[in-house]
Amino acid sequence: MSECRPARWRRAKYWLNALVLIAPVWFFYASLTPEFPPPWETQTVGPFSVTPTPHNSAPPYDHHGVRVKDFGFRFCDGCVERIRLAHANVGPQALPALEGGDGVVHGHGAQQEAHVPYPAQAGEGDRLWLTVQEWNGAIHRRAWPLPPAGPVAR
Amino acid sequence: MAIRNRKLWFRVHGWLSLPVWLVFCLVCVTGTIAVISHELTWLTNPAARADNPDGLPARPLPELVAAVQQAVPGAQVSRIIVFEPYLVTAVGIAEPGKPPALAYVNPYTAEVQAINRGITFIGFMRALHGWLLFPWHQSWSLGYYLVAAMSVVTLGAMITGIVIYKRFWRAFTRPQLRTGAGARVLLGDLHRLAGAWSLWFLLVLGATGLWYLVQAVLWHNDVHIWDDTPMVEASAVPLTNGTPPAMIGLQQALDEAQRAIPGLAPRWVSFPEHSRAHFDIAGDGGSFLYDQYSWRVQVEPWSGTVAEVRTPAAMTALQTVAHIADPLHYGTLGGIWTKAIWFVFGLLLSAMSITGFLIWSKRTFTQTTRVAPGTRTDDDGRDAGLEGAR
């Protein structure tokens, strides 16, 4: 019996890598049934209604040297065309001016997205801010509280 | 080279390849299919064919966009992808409340032949071959590393193969395929013959694969091969009484791009994603070695100013490698004929991982049952496999 085991191992060992082939099948199945974090509350920012949704539950990551987390922003239909610029950030307050490139809201159509600057350790006073400027220069701001616990708030 | 050393090289040949032979085979098979994925799409999906019975010239891209906007009212166009002349042009669209879609437009008649809201076969094959569908964590994917690491197996098997296959060039002058000497001899001959004739292919695939491994490390560490074009100054974006101002049209953006790079044949157009972004226009500029994004122009959408021009002539060494890797890896450099050659050699490479495993299997398990007790062989009876390589 003790001699059988090594022989079986020798025969089987180069088949072990077949286990890796299960991964694509599994990931393909998972891609057919994607799970997204729940959308946050819909709020109005000036004349526009917006619903933010984080892309995933993962902690923030480094993007071009800035710590960010990806969010989708669902604007009301036909509203994006009426917006000159929009930025998002997480912090104690909204961005003071729409000059920099960080957190710029972008995309095509009503479903927009942004790489939102996000502190490494989100504190009590931090919120998700959206700053929207209309074509006439009018600026509107709105904040969403961060979820109290879980990976999103990390 | 001394026979003793060749035995060691032979063992390394097996150690490199055998533990991952099935994964390697999957990567080879999916890559082989990916090479002809455009042609398979043409064969299997009539809506993706650009039939042109009247021999019409290709319509300007703005006409194709207009056709899509007419067929899908309210659609926002995000991008245009121009494929081979026998395939439709894909126009990316966003519609309220619907997932992003691709409109398939016949480039000669401007007929919208289909709206695809799902995945494409081309994209699926690239993802399956490129990262085995493993998830991406922003800038890295375990699957991408896994696949790119197969370049080490490829190059390692090639180098050790050359060493252990004594006078391998005889495979070119006196190819040997002994069909009447049993399966093991035939498998060995097939493996060596395919290996010798695929040397150039192994080198091309291994070297470009090694580049993808380097690229994966660069991406993972947030090192950019190209710097992003700086955004349009906020002050350059018009302020109005509230009415949305008009950007320049696609035709003007294309004209500006072609003025900056005469002869530019657009293969990719990305519409500005926000008011401080650019029209991103990339295409072929005439040199077959470079990919279809090597000639690239960023056009400012309010004034029509060209903000950045990229051409192979001005590329750094790293940028050059990044832009010549794909045509070499996928065999697209000479069109359908080089794709056909890459496909055939891709099949050979896929088969080599199978014949390699079968050779080991037959040698180890048939051999050990026949060897008289007490006869010395190495752990797997591998040395015996050198027969025929002499």
Layout of helices and strands:
The complex is a heterodimer of chains A (154) and B (390).
Chain A: H1 4-12, H2 22-32, E1 43-45, E2 48-54, E3 61-63, E4 66-75, E5 83-91, E6 106-107, E7 111-117, E8 127-134, E9 139-145
Antiparallel strand pairs in A: 1-2, 2-4, 3-4, 4-7, 5-8, 6-7, 8-9
Chain B: H1 3-17, H2 21-35, H3 37-44, H4 61-71, E1 76-81, E2 89-94, E3 101-105, E4 112-116, H5 121-131, H6 142-164, H7 170-173, H8 183-197, H9 199-220, H10 250-260, E5 265-270, E6 279-284, E7 295-299, E8 306-310, H11 317-330, H12 336-370
Antiparallel strand pairs in B: 1-2, 1-5, 2-3, 3-4, 5-6, 6-7, 7-8
Helix pairs in contact in B: 1-6, 2-5, 2-12, 6-9, 8-12, 9-11
Q: Your description of this structure?
A:
The complex is a heterodimer of chains A (154) and B (390). In chain A, strand 1 (43-45) and strand 2 (48-54) form a beta hairpin. Chain A has one domain (43-153): Immunoglobulin-like. In chain A, the strands form two sheets. In chain A, strands 1, 2, 3, 4, 6 and 7 form a six-stranded antiparallel β-sheet that branches. Chain A has a three-stranded antiparallel β-sheet with strand order 5-8-9, with no helix packed on it. Chain A has helices at 4-12, 22-32; strands spanning 43-45, 48-54, 61-63, 66-75, 83-91, 106-107, 111-117, 127-134, 139-145. With 154 residues, chain A is mainly beta. By secondary structure, chain B is of the alpha+beta class. Chain B has one domain. Chain B has twelve helices and eight strands. Chain B has an eight-stranded antiparallel β-sheet with strand order 4-3-2-1-5-6-7-8. Chains A and B meet through helix 2, strand 3, strand 5 and strand 6 of A and helix 2, strand 1, strand 2 and helix 12 of B.
